[in-house]
Amino acid sequence: MIKRAISLSLLCSALLSPAQAATAPDSTQWRNLNKTLVAQHVLPRYQNFADATAQMAADSAALCQNASSANLTVAQESYHRAMDAWQSIQHIRFGPIENLMRSFSVQYWPDKKNLTGKHINGLLAKQDDANLTQEFFRNASIAVKGLPAVERLLFDKAGLPAFADNSYQCRLNASISQYLASLGKHTAMEWQDYATSFSTPGDGNSYYETDIEASTDLLKALVEPVEVIRDLKLLRPLGTAAKNVNGKVKPRRSESWRSSRSLRNIDMNVATLHDLYSGQGDASFKALLSNAGHQALADSIEANFVSVEKDLKAIPRPMFTTLEQPATRQQLRDLSAKMKTLQYALSDAVQLLDLQLGFNSRDGD
Amino acid sequence: MTAINRRQFCQLLAAGTLLPSLGISPVLAANGQTPLFASAAKAGDNDYRLYVAAADGSLLLDHKLPTRAHHVEAHPHRPVLACTARRPDTFIDIVDYQQGKLIHRIASGEGRHFFGHSVFTPDGEFLISSENNIKDGQGRIVIRRASGLFTKVADMPSGGIGPHEIKLLPANSQTLMVANGGILTHPDKGRKKLNLDTMQPSLTALNLRSGQIGEQQMLPAEHHQLSIRHIDTNLRNETLIALQYQGKEDNPPLVAVHRPGQPLKLLTAPEPVDIAMKRYCGSARFDSSGQYAAVSSPRGNLITFWDLQNDRYHSMINSPDGCGLAATGAAGEFIITTGRGICQQHNLISGNTERISLAQRLAWDNHMVTL
To answer: B89-132: per-residue pLDDT in tens?
Structure first.
């Protein structure tokens, strides 16, 4: 903490020469940023999630019609694309995805009590057709209607026979996929309406009163996931090996280990945050930070992203098995340290841009 | 405390003068601006202030505080606010919001700090606060005269560690409900929580006259890490409790209700709502009818509403960093303030939510009070 404060104050004094005083962005700059990020970053990603889940629903239904090895591969591939799409938009935790707790419905994870497994096994044991309706899924536990449930069903070790003869397991998977497709479609549609809020804050119809309030939501989506990825996706699976070279790893804590895509999820997450930071040229957080007189910090965050992406690529996969190797553990520990640096640099940027991400939520009283 | 003061206090209690006086509410004539609510807020770096906002969004009071504060209490019939320091700080600012001036700054005194909450007795004669006796970490409840030099008239054990919010039972103004949060802290260690493995929170009914504990309720052993921190009481002597979880389980219950002589009853919302509350509630308030309750979850960015007629979850709204809650005069209606500077009014019966535009964007702190 002390180290951090010093680095920030050094940074400020180094950059704040009297001639070039730093100024926070004005509301025109914030609005331009908000509108661009929503149009170029948010909306296409929700559309992509809607398209990918629709394809997954179609391919899951086709698998039940004809349980061929080729169709199983196609269904598994379309699950991968839906999960790619979700990992590329899960950082947006505000707006229509908040309605009816959709975000938790798409992916309830980490699932420390194995709720998904218990619910899915319960449904498979009952074989009740009433539990395959869209009405059932609207009211069902969030642990049973998301991508982790699809993953469990589609990547079942029993393989193709589990889906033969229009089996209950196959139809359950198709029904969950259909529910996700509907959720994806409605979320994307509702975002079209929600997006107008970023053009006219304070007009009485907008969800936002000011431009800076809307920017705060977007900046939160950039900053907070870095810590979440590090804590949940890297450090939890590392277990006691996170701090101790002889510690014990916990491979089953890896995200999406059944479909062998734990690190691919992180690839998507980091690339997405990188795009949110600097992907839209002049209308990006990076550009605003530079314009506000913090060029050095803006560049170092960019370099942090590039470096994290490079290190990620070098880690052997799937993490579920490579976690056991001492060399991989060291790579993961190093990656975690780099993400911490990135997290601190982004926190500094938040302060310099004069935004407040959480006041009561971080109070602890 | 001196014996004479203590005796005077008990005599006042015996004479029944602590009963609420009939509403002589202050009227602010200034340009037709009616005061709406009072709350502490962060105005800038190391700049914490106490504000009164008017119904038209203007600020009627802007009072600079020594450091960050927590709860604000309104005097029952004078235009006076008591703004209590956030733990582990040591002041309560007594402010006249019509004249815009500090009347008195109470110091917790040697070896003590405040925990963030204080309440006036219904007659407005006394101010009661929750405090930490730093040396042994025991919670204390302190009663001071609410005028002059604010001298101490009573100082009694709270019945636990870390007493946080306190509320009188309205139907019996001699009983103080104390949320003994159970978390041990020491000013030398900042805000660090020192006893999470062994913490034992309780809800304690304290007789202000005798200092005796009338009733003390704890949660079942498996829930000992659910800190009982924020409470409210209604005319039926029910106490609403908002919990903060200090353990590692996924989805603990976060709301409870107490009725005299009965164990604490844990309430749950539908699973996704419970999960979305992120194991942390910040404030709890009854509505003006006493039937409905609101609980804020600033980490989950939502406010949940509850119906105490049948002890059930009613509904929720999203509110980013929303924490401060207060009832309006209408049944089922609350004002909500957020750390993002937003103020909303929501009526759970009509489902209607409205923004209240404020002149300035401030990070509103945990608690607020309508005026």
So the answer is: 999 999 999 999 999 999 999 999 999 999 999 999 999 999 99
Q: What do you get for the CA distance between the two ends of chain A, in Å? A: 21
Name every residue whose Cβ is closer than 8 Å to that of residue B249 and which is 6 or more positions away in sequence: none
Global pTM value: 0.76
DSSP string, B110-166: TTEEEEEEEEE-TTSSEEEEEEEETTTTEEEEEEEESSTT--EEEEEE-SSSSEEEE
Full strand arrangement of the beta sheet holding B152-157: B112-120, B126-133, B138-145, B152-157
Both tokens of residue B39? 């709350």
3-state secondary structure of B323: strand
Residue B121, both tokens: 């007795």
d(CA B335, CA B61): 19
Structural domain of A138: 31-198
Nearest residue on chain B to A204, judged by CA atoms?
Answer: B355
Q: Which of A165, A198, A231 delimits the end of a domain?
A: A198
Which residues partner with B204 through β-bridges? B178, B216
- Shortest Cα distance, chain A CAs vs residue B353, angstroms: 11
**Total domains, chain A:** 2
- Among B320, B363, B366, whose Cβ lies nearest the Cβ of A365? B366
Contact call for A360 and B116, based on CB within 8 A: no
Facing residue for A142 by CB, picked from B271, B318, B355: B271
**Phi and psi dihedrals of B21, rounded to 5?**
-80, 160
The sign of the dihedral angle between the CA atoms of B61, B65, B70, B76 is negative
Burial label, B160 (beta-carbon count in 10 A; 0-12, 13-18, 19+) = buried
What DSSP character marks residue A121? H
Q: What is the distance of C-alpha A29 from the center of its chain?
A: 26
Segments in chain B below pLDDT 50? 1-4, 16-30
The answer on A217 and A69 residing in a single domain is no
Q: Which CATH number fits domain B3-269: 2.30.29.170, 2.130.10.10, 1.20.1200.10, 3.40.30.10?
A: 2.130.10.10
Amino acid at B237: N
Question: A345: Cβ–Cβ under 8 A, 6 or more apart, which residues?
Answer: A297, A300, A301, A304
A156 with A285, same domain? no
User: How far is the alpha carbon of B185 from chain A, nearest alpha carbon, in Å?
Assistant: 12
pLDDT score at A220: 93
List the domain boundaries for chain B. 3-269
Residue A139 touches chain B, beta carbons under 8 Å = no
CA–CA separation, B316 vs B295, rounded Å?
9
A5-28 pLDDT, tens digit per residue, is 444 444 444 444 333 456 789 999
Looking at residue A202, what is its pLDDT? 83
Q: Mind listing the pLDDT tens digit for each residue in A231-246? A: 999 999 999 999 999 9
DSSP B368: E
Which strand ranges, in their side-by-side order, compose the sheet holding B69-74?
Answer: B69-74, B80-85, B91-96, B101-107
Tokens 């009509």 sit on residue:
B350
